[in-house]
Design brief:
By secondary structure, this protein is an alpha+beta fold. The chain has a single domain, classed as 60s Ribosomal Protein L30, Chain: A. About 25% of the residues lie in helices and about 30% in strands.
């Protein structure tokens, strides 16, 4: 069974600092771990919610490309916000990445996120072979 599960990793996205993978491919599905607004070195991104959401989306994009897939193959996104006051600004950036093919999405307000960031995104995508 372990041959059916493949860990995905790229130096173009922040590296995990705990026991998890950037993404895992299981059959035709790619499960991308939550991306916080950090660059590939792990440094947190400063700026607006738009800047931070862009960093999260770029992390998803880079991981999916490392898996041989793309943003256009995403079927489900979960957005975590520490305040729904950030929803409109986050959504404006989100639409630039996902507006054309409109995957299913959940957006939830949470009390806090790792490293005190205000936004995190995770997704499920199809591989190019799936």
């Amino acid at each position: 069974m372990t041959t059916e599960i493949k860990q995905i990793s790229t130096p173009k996205a922040a590296q995990p600092v705990a026991p998890y993978s950037q993404a895992v491919q299981a059959g035709p599905h790619i499960f991308v771990s939550g991306q916080i607004p950090a660059d590939a070195s792990g440094k947190l991104i400063e700026g607006s919610i738009a800047d931070k959401t862009t960093a999260c989306c770029e992390g998803l994009k880079n991981i999916l490309e490392a898996a041989g897939s793309s943003i256009s193959r995403v079927v489900k996104v979960t957005v975590f916000l520490t305040s729904m006051e950030h929803f409109a600004e986050m959504n404006g950036v989100y639409e630039k990445y996902f507006g054309e093919h409109k995957p299913s999405r959940s957006c939830v307000a949470v009390k806090e996120l790792p490293k005190g960031v205000p936004v995190e995104l995770e997704c499920i995508a199809l591989s190019n072979s799936g």
